Amino acid sequence: MKKVLLILVVLSTALIAQTTQKIGYVDSQVILNQLPSAIKAQGELDALVSKWNASIDSMVTDLQSQYTNYQQQAESMTPDARRAKEQELVMKEQSITQFRASKFQQPNGEYYRKNDELLQPIKDQIMKGIEEAAKKEGLTFVFDKAGDVILLYADQTYDITFTVLDMLKRGKK
Q: What is the mean pLDDT of the chain?
């Protein structure tokens, strides 16, 4: 009876030891902020946004100027001319709204399409790096500290952020 009990204890201990899982985490925001290809892609996106905002600012300034002129001349205009000018101003305002929406509206705005086009290959590369680092470190699970997952405590021992970043910068996949 004692031998059976001892065997059961040894077997259950062995099973528990086999199910021990090693967990790690990364901070994907740190990787995106330091990876040269991501920095370049973000720079391209920022340049596009600056260009589009400059266009919007120019259109708004033009609209404001035309509206000021309209207000100054409205008293001397015929009702038909006033109505035509008001329609023109409304159309310009709608044009600005449509331009802004075409560039920045989620999910189909040009900004979001360009963001996906530029960053998706980089994110795929990061995921491959995370998988490679996790396998190298013998990790079962890897959490992203920067994502929606709340990580209340993390031992620095299991942080593979810089392992992944180093592998990606060196070109090892």
A: 86
